[in-house]
Design a protein that fits this description.
Blueprint lengths: L10 H4 L14 H13 L1 H6 L11 H10 L5 H8 L5 H4 L8
């Protein structure tokens, strides 16, 4: 599948891609930027990744933490990661994958 997805996206269209929480684990910088682009565009994606529906800013660290430790089936788990209720100590040492 292409690194970038064009047009309107749906949840079923992004299953099995880096836009699905925890699917790829460690993301590249390009993938993180792509996730941020779609988080800005889609409220349902923000909620799935654990961000507030009204969020406008998405840190690399939070995106990488949800990509690595998140759960595609449980948005509340992802929310705990974003708010650092869990994995707070691990999120400081996350690194980007090599491009």
């Amino acid at each position: 599948m292409s690194e970038l997805i064009d047009g309107k996206i749906t949840k079923s269209a992004i299953l099995g891609t880096h836009l699905e929480p925890s699917y790829e684990g460690v993301l590249t910088g390009r993938q993180v930027r792509n996730v941020k682009k779609y988080l800005r565009r889609y409220q349902w994606l923000r909620v799935w990744w654990g961000f507030s529906p009204a969020a406008k800013r998405f840190s690399y660290r939070n995106i990488m933490a949800v990509a690595q430790f998140g759960d595609a089936e449980d948005a509340s788990w992802n929310r705990k990661i974003v708010t650092r209720e869990i994995f707070a100590d691990q999120s400081g040492s996350l690194e980007l994958a090599k491009d």
